[in-house]
Specification:
Elements: H1 2-13, H2 33-47, H3 60-70
Length: about 70
C-alpha cells in the first residue's frame, strides 16, 4: 500500500518514487492543502476507502495506518 501511495505522490510531484520517504511530512514534500485534497481523492479511488484527513495524518506512514484501520 505504501509503495502505491509513493507512486501516486511521485507522479503528482514529477519525482521518482524512490525519492519519496514514507515518514516525511506532506508539507516537507512540498504538498500544500489543495494538493493533499487532490491526492486524497486519487488514493481513495485507488484503495476504495473514504479518508477523513486531519492534522495527525501528515505522512504516508500515518495515512497507510489510517486506511488499514478503516478496513
Amino acid at each position: 500500500m505504501k509503495e502505491k501511495m509513493k507512486e501516486i505522490i511521485a507522479e503528482f510531484l514529477g519525482k521518482d518514487a524512490a525519492d519519496i520517504k514514507t515518514d516525511e511530512t506532506f508539507s516537507d514534500m512540498g504538498i500544500d492543502s489543495l494538493d493533499i485534497a487532490e491526492l486524497v481523492m486519487q488514493i481513495e479511488d485507488e484503495f476504495e476507502v473514504s479518508i477523513e484527513m486531519s492534522q495527525e495524518i501528515n505522512t504516508i506512514d500515518a495515512l497507510a495506518e489510517y486506511i488499514e484501520n478503516q478496513k
